[in-house]
Fold:
Amino acid sequence: MMRSGLQLLAEDPQTAVIVLVSKPPAERVARELLAAAQVDKPVVVVFLGTERFAKVAGKAHLARTLTEGAERAVSLAGGDTTRVPGKGTLLKQESRLAAERAKLASSQRYIRALYSGGTLCDEAMLLLSERVGKVASNIPLRPEWALAAGEVYRGHTALDLGSDEFTRGRPHPMIDPSIRLQYLDRAVEDAETAVILLDIVLGFCTHANPAAVYAPAIVQARTMAAAAGRALPVIISLCGTEGDPQRLSMQRKALEAAGALVFESNVAAALAAASLVSDFDIPTNFQAEEKGHW
Structure:
């Protein structure tokens, strides 16, 4: 399917730059697609965690994260990369993050990430594992990090709630948030939860107004934690545009009013979460952090 799409875009006169995005693919698949990407147009390839294919990338432009991929694509299309969400967003929230960290109780040590998007979850786990160590998950980066049957959280945890085991017989959590709200409640009840990390994806075939659901849930979560004597930062990776039916600015405003820290880059959101539970310093140069750390 990806080869077919790549060929169609390569032949499309209105397409100037092609971007391929995938979870970490099998090595054979990655090599086949990189070979197919040797077309007469710039191709940016975001295969999460596959920087090892640099020697066989050929003309393709490899990017390790979605933010880096977006910046490269915009640059190749002659656009303004300073408008790509990500750069500088962490610095703008530095004082807020420091204040939130100072309020954490000694028991609060772990990130609890509840994702509806598997690719975003994979990206967050790659970033978090490099800064806080192992991250337990239902889609683990390593087999030994897999959650056991019936296990909800174990240390730093990232869940892909859009995975098959959560969507059999029910709508995807991008459409129906009920399953994620249940896991949110469990995270709030856990005294070891230091920060909750969520993604909210806008667009067609997603919830018509996710902020109307998540804003009151965030207020309730923070209120419950406060009643138990704990602060509870909530960080949101908000993926969308003003052209989406839900309107990015309206969603952001409602979520921030509920007390959430909102980032339009999943990289920034994950790094913000890491800064609350580790000695990771917020970078002064976002792009340099991406390239230098990896």
